[in-house]
Amino acid sequence: MSPGRPTAHLHQRSTADQPEGAVRILGLMSGTSHDGIDGAVVEFTPQGEGLIARVVTHVSAAYEPGLRDRLVTALPPAPTTLAEVTRLDTQIGQAFAELAARAVEGAGPMDLVASHGQTVFHWVEPASESSTGTPSTPAARGTLQLGQPAWIAEATGAPVLADVRARDIAAGGHGAPLVGLLDELLLADRVRAGARPAALNLGGIANVSVVEDAGVRAWDTGPANALMDAVVRDRGAHPQGYDADGALAAAGSVHAPLLESLLADPYYRQAPPKSTGKELFHLDYLRAVLARTDTEALPIEDLLATLAELTVHTVARALHDAGVSELYASGGGARNPVLMSGLRRALPSVQVRSSADLGVGEQEKEALLMALLGWYAWHGLPASMPASGARGPRLLGSLTPGAGPLRLPEPREQPPAWLRVG
């Protein structure tokens, strides 16, 4: 994007061209697969005690290959420099700004843009193991998302909410997963109907939200696509850099000793709240496990089948322990038949469905979450969840003004009790 791009034709949305009480927000998200940016323009309208969300449009863009390569190269455990971090912060911000400008040009001005940015490091102190062999709860100390929001504000003229995880961590939480807020509202009707529902996101990392009358519990269960994608890219097994349609994994067989070794990682024994990322589950981590088990020569099909079974096993164990009756899956992994058939096999008493059954596309959910976090911040509502481990509810995010002065509405007294996607 040109630094001198004019922004006069892009401006903060006026109240004259929207239904009463409606707010239009662009949510932008790039997840732990580090492959690109998803965006959703969402119009939120209060209705009684709840909230109607209308997805106006969905946009996405892959990272330019050179930028993605530099981003992946800079990720832990690789060393990097502050100069490269600064360049990535600017260039990722420009990539987000390009997509935001495209969304605004297609859908019209926004009240707010809510940008997650790109996570490059999630700092979690390892749990210590007690004399009984039970790990203590790990503690999150910090998190870093790149993608300077000023570029988005400059390109769109709209205010930008960013840095949405840090406050939860400062309050003693994990800052992840934040999707429990959306899942609790989306599944409220199912809870009232007597179900015990859960939501599952299969991105680079898998996370689950279990919704009950008392609230929601959400945590990261372990890797979903992170290790599988790393293997495919390392071995050049597919031009897209991932196992498309799970074809390679479907052709392989699970290697039981390797699976047992992978499942021995202490992370899986830790009790929620907990979070993780590619800081732990990366290619060098996997190489070390393969060396210990003398399975470096394992065919890629068997390796991918084993890694898929690792995800199935760790997710299923978490949901079985929670007594879940139905599950709504989203994320790139929800389109992997090996993962989905494995979950149905491992959870025979659970109805495994797609998030699309709730009106939310499998690839749209995280962008919708960002838009919802923007709506909460816009109305002065805390968005952090007790399940994260935080000491209490907190307002999340930092606001960058748009082309004009920042004018927020009066804070709402109560959060919505439910959300339906119209």
Automatic annotation (TrEMBL):
Entry keyword NADP: no
GO molecular function, one term: phosphotransferase activity, alcohol group as acceptor
Listed NCBIfam families: PRK09585.2-6
Keywords: ATP-binding, Carbohydrate metabolism, Kinase, Nucleotide-binding, Transferase
Family in the record: Belongs to the anhydro-N-acetylmuramic acid kinase family.
EC number: 2.7.1.170
This protein's pathway: Cell wall biogenesis; peptidoglycan recycling; Amino-sugar metabolism; 1,6-anhydro-N-acetylmuramate degradation
Source organism, top-level taxon: Bacteria
InterPro entries per the UniProt record, alphabetical: Anhydro_N_Ac-Mur_kinase, ATPase_NBD
Reactions mediated catalytically: 1,6-anhydro-N-acetyl-beta-muramate + ATP + H2O = N-acetyl-D-muramate 6-phosphate + ADP + H(+)
The keyword Kinase belongs to this UniProt entry's keyword annotation: yes
A single GO BP: 1,6-anhydro-N-acetyl-beta-muramic acid catabolic process
Species annotation: Bogoriella caseilytica
Protein name: Anhydro-N-acetylmuramic acid kinase
Gene: anmK
Region (Disordered): 395-422
Pfam families in alphabetical order: AnmK
SUPFAM superfamilies in the record: Actin-like ATPase domain
Positions annotated to bind ATP: G31, T32, S33, H34, D35, G36, I37, D38
Function field: Catalyzes the specific phosphorylation of 1,6-anhydro-N-acetylmuramic acid (anhMurNAc) with the simultaneous cleavage of the 1,6-anhydro ring, generating MurNAc-6-P. Is required for the utilization of anhMurNAc either imported from the medium or derived from its own cell wall murein, and thus plays a role in cell wall recycling.
